[in-house]
Amino acid sequence: MKNTIIKYGLYGFFTGLVIFLATILFGKNLSYSAQEIIGYTSMVVSLSFLFFGIKYYRDHVNNGIISFGKALAIGVLISAFVGIGVGIADYIYTSFINPNFATEYLETTLKTMENTLPAEEFQTKKVTLTKQMEDYGGSGFMAFLMFFTVVLIGFVISLISGLVLQRK
User: Fold this and answer.
1) What would the 3-class secondary structure string for 129-159 be?
2) Which residues are listed as membrane-spanning (predicted)?
3) Residue 101 CB neighbour total at 10 angstroms
4) Domain residues of the chain, as ranges?
5) In this predicted model, what pLDDT tens digit does every residue of 119-147 receive, in sequence order?
């Protein structure tokens, strides 16, 4: 099990790192919503190694048998590798490539909110969002959020993969 997790985890790690950095670098002229869609798509593509890792373990290591729990464990552990890759890419981007990302993102979000919300509600949300960005806008925390997001999405994909691939 360990070898399968490491093998497919590293595939996902490098795929997540490369695709996420490429998305960040080549998509910088796109809107934040388009970048967000591309970012989530790159996460799901990187997390596809969960399914293939679970399937490989079932078919080639465990004689065609895998329980739901073992499939879930393999998937979550592989997703941790992918999360680390994406988290590193995010840290590199927000620390070195675009250290002003948090400020730019806040400004863009506030402009969108100002155009869509009533003035009173906008002021309330502006204060809250500005405070959150001051408290949590550091590169390390943002990288951790990316890691957590990837592992959470990976957990869901692991649940689905475990249900589809389980054989007793």
Assistant:
1) HHHHHHHHCCHHHHHHHHHHHHHHHHHHHHH
2) 5-25, 37-57, 69-93, 141-165
3) 17
4) 2-99+139-165
5) 889 999 999 988 888 888 789 999 999 99
